[in-house]
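Box 4.2: Ligand-aware structure prediction
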Amino acid sequence: MALIVHKYGGTSMGSPERIRNVAKRVAKWARAGHQMIVVPSAMSGETNRLLELAKLLSPEQSTAELRRELDMIASTGEQVSVGLLAIALQAEGMPAVSYAGWQVPIATDVAYTKARIQSIEDGRVRSELAAGKVVVITGFQGVDPQGNVTTLGRGGSDTSAVAIAAAMKADECLIYTDVDGVYTTDPRIVPEARRLKTITFEEMLEMASLGSKVLQIRSVEFAGKYKVPLRVLSSFEDTGEGTLITYEEDEKMEQAIISGIAFSRDEAKITVTGVPDRPGIAYAILGPIADANVDVDMIIQNASVDGITDFSFTVHRNDFQKAMDISRKIQAHIGARDIVGDSHVCKVSMVGVGMRSHVGIASQMFRTLAEEGINIQMISTSEIKISVVVDEKYMELAVRVLHKAFGLESEPV
Ligand code: ADP
Ligand code: ASP
Ligand code: MG
């Protein structure tokens, strides 16, 4: 007998019929003798609908008071899902009980709309399991030290499932979604994309942080920290091995140099031109941006000519206006010539641990983009990834030509 955690995403929970299918699969696993914990998301579209409703009443989203209410609202989607799934399981003749995050409890910090899980109590869940019940726990939500409901950021049910699996020392955490595994890139953009049988934890972490929404980044961080056996599979198929996240690299000696391509539309670029090149300038620009809680991703400062340089950085598109306003205030203060902003950029990244031992990947990437007339605006590299910022109108084209140029549609030899 094993302890298993299943997570079902919004599409998999999208209708009563689909919820019934989820219940049937879970009941089958339980009847096979496993202890089952299920973590469902809100029904597809529901979180968006709830947040849109809130926006109708207040477009402003920056105060903690408002974010507290947003979490109160958004968390209800998952609460409906757990109740429905528990009922569907009971209708299958399978004893089941639903839990909201605060009932478990799943303790988080107070960062409304992007809270982090701090600890999970296992007592109540274990006694329900011991009583022979399937335990259905809300994804996406938790409770802060004052008892306020919090949410974990969009896509956060992945993190709930992996964190619960870690806390319960589950034998396996299976993420059921609307694709049958992790692909070389989003199969909705490149139909030739290939499912990966395995992906290293490190690569998955990069893919998630660079925009592949198949797993929320924090779920991958948890999986790595606690070595949770993690697999991504389709909720619409009963067979199929999906993609296993692995924690050892040696079994992948023969792997491809590039494992996947990730992309993100949520980018915006700001350039401060004509900046005097003197100590403290980077801090003068980025300090106030950080103080306003805006995360900066890529940063580029040119070599100066005659003591004057340009300074560019990227932020999440949602923070663009805020970052522009702050930059304009700084402009006069530091004596810069101008502030130029562009919120129509995107980031395309190639990821692979095999890059470590191969040179020339970057130049092949740049040549491929040049041949399509795609201008690269910014570049950033690490040991296992290369990212470029390009005009968003070229995003899909860039992903397609790179996928083809690196032969990702076929198995590595
Ligand atoms: P869920 O609602 O089940 O959490 P998501 O929509 O959050 O599902 O994530 C699954 C989606 O992620 C897929 O439908 C696919 O379009 C997208 N995706 C992006 N990159 C990849 C990738 N490399 N492999 C598989 N799916 C990907
Ligand atoms: N329902 C939440 C969202 O739409 C969490 C999730 O689906 O993982 O972001
Ligand atoms: Mg998701």
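In the box above, the bound molecule is aspartic acid. The pocket of magnesium ion (ligand 3) is lined by residues 9, 155, 158, 213 (CB under 6 Å).
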